[in-house]
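Late entry, written up from scratch paper. The run itself happened at the end of the previous shift, but nothing got recorded in the book at the time, so transcribing now.
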Amino acid sequence: PGDPSTWEPLDADEVQTTIEPAYLRLRSAAEGEAAAAQVDREYQERIDDINAKRPKGAFEALVQHVTSCLTACVESVLTLRPAGMVEAMGDLLIVMPRALWKQAPWFTVVFGLFVVIVMAIGGGAISRMAACQVAGGERLSIRAAVDFAQRRWSALVWAQVLPVVLALILCGVTAALGVLMIAPVIDIVGGVGYGLALVLGFLITFLLLGYAVGFSLLVPAVAAENCDGADAVQRAYAYAVSRPLQLIVYLIVAVIGLALGFVLVTLVARMTLNVTAELFGALSNNPALSITGGYDGFDLSHRPLRDTGRWHSNWAADAIQFWQSLVVCLVGAWVVAYHFSASTMVYLLMRRLCDGQEIDDIWRPGEAVAVDIAVMDVIEEH
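Output as recorded:
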């Protein structure tokens, strides 16, 4: 009720609570199990329809948007539509961050830093395991990989945020130069200095485009070379600039592998969820089972829980939702693991292509870090 500008977003529970009384009246008036089941289906369809259209919080909207972009990318690969894949990746890497910053800047900063730290430690561990396996067939233990990432967490974080920090500094300098255009006469100095602003604009563009293309190489650089964040950024940008077409080809192949693997993993998860739901609910009509099964295509989003009217059924539904969510989280975990593993392979291939360094040549405990090795090579040459 009231002016739409005063409306507040409702979460899934509030949506159900709003229309729950009408549903209960209809169900109590239904004659027979078939009629009651029809009321249940119509109620669930109405709930799904409302939840698809209601305003969402920043985190919920972010998760759904990332999922939709990933699904669109996979479908574009399967239907051989390169333009769709490019559009989905551009939406994920460019449109989404801009929208997040515009609509929820504090959430973007806080949650963004959290994601960077988690990806630094978790992604660094996965990349280190992949590098050791590709370089020498060594199966590094999870504990050893996590220990490596924890020791190098600052370099892993700095490698991911340094280009963004530099771009933000240059943006501030460029905006400060624009202040010269405010006052009379001094605006002449501002007009002359516009050439410097163009140079800064070019540097900002270079940093952002290089970040978008070479982002996947940053964490693997630290994992393979044990270098600091600045050196990892230098390596990623150098490879992206010197051999951009080869890098794009490698990334396209990696995306194709992601799409095919995602289809298989999603198929296994969907069949697991649906088969379990059918068998587990074959001998029972418990209302808690209404949230099980029904998964189709690439959509693994769960159905919102609704009040069954009985506390024990509500608790059972919560427990069932927890176990189903674990299966969905495993699919997401596979996507993250594939990203860092494939990115590590792409980094090693680009390093061999640009520097002539063999794939099996990575940093190992007891060796000097990559920067020290490079300095020693220069000293020996002279």
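The chain has 13 helices and no strands.
(Scratch paper discarded after transcription.)
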